[in-house]
Amino acid sequence: MNAVLKPVPGETVLSVARANTYYGETQVLFDVSLNVGAGEVVALLGPNGAGKTTTLRTILGLTPARSGSVDFDGRDITRAPTHEIARTGIGWVPDDRRIFPTLTVARNLAIARKKTRFRSWNEKECFEIFSALEYLMHRECENLSGGEMQMVAISRALIGAPGLVLFDEPSQGLAPKVVQDVMKTILRLKKEGISVLVVEQNVETALAVADRAYVMNLGTVVHEGPADVLRNDAALRRRLLGV
Ligand SMILES: Nc1ncnc2c1ncn2[C@@H]1O[C@H](COP(=O)(O)OP(=O)(O)OP(=O)(O)O)[C@@H](O)[C@H]1O
Predict the structure, then answer these.
(1) How many independent structural domains does the chain possess?
(2) What's 57's domain CATH number?
(3) pLDDT, tens digit (0-9, with 9 covering 90-100), for 75-118
(4) 164 membership: H or E segment, kind and range
(5) Which SUPFAM superfamilies match (predicted)?
(6) Domain contains 119
(7) Closest ligand 1 atom to 53 CA
(8) pLDDT in tens, 160-195
(9) Which residues partner with 195 through β-bridges?
(10) How far, in Å, is the centroid of ligand 1 from the Cα of 119?
(11) Domain range for residue 198?
(12) Pocket of ligand 1 (CB under 6 A)
């Protein structure tokens, strides 16, 4: 692995500053600010409709902020097209996986390969994380289980050489054992110096792997702090998240 390409620990790699995002004329994000440090796992929590997915869409340029800014790896990407943002080293594991169903696993992975300034992963390294993947390479993706699709979606993000991976509800619809595997993978990415921003409905699961957490409600950030604080304060968790 090329250590030179690793971000310096402690540095901010992603910074969203006072983002205001709209769907048509309807504003859904109001002055949203958040940061992710190098090699940090950050959870983005909140009830349905709070604006979590829209925050990820804003970072990815799918629904760009009308005002405010998004900076990644020292570059202003607020208004960059999504394909360029991907090339800066932001990987995405969407909640609906977005895998090409009629293509094989191998093909889905092959077309995800790209060069960024971060380290690129190869298929073999993905097999080390997800041992079952090696035996699925020639299967068409439409025949995969939810857990298998998630392995492909995460591997695809890694093959795209990310410095930051955005996960949208990675535990959704998965068996508890598979959820544990996904969370272990998030910790593995952290060990590799890759930053993670994870949107989760499953608060306990997300807080178990996160260093810091943001809570959103009605399009605004209502809490920010170390994950420990939310983990250890049941009353605060109930007040902010109802759990
Ligand atoms: N394509 C869209 N067009 C119009 N409004 C949208 C669109 N997508 C989301 N919204 C609205 O934007 C608000 C924020 O939605 P968003 O999906 O970001 O929330 P969320 O926190 O991710 O919630 P969930 O966990 O339910 O996905 C909601 O009021 C939602 O109805």
Answers:
(1) 1
(2) 3.40.50.300
(3) 999 999 999 999 999 999 987 777 877 889 999 999 889 899 99
(4) strand 164-168
(5) P-loop containing nucleoside triphosphate hydrolases (SSF52540)
(6) yes
(7) 22
(8) 999 999 999 998 888 888 888 899 999 999 999 999
(9) 164
(10) 33
(11) 11-241
(12) 23, 26, 28, 46, 48-54, 201
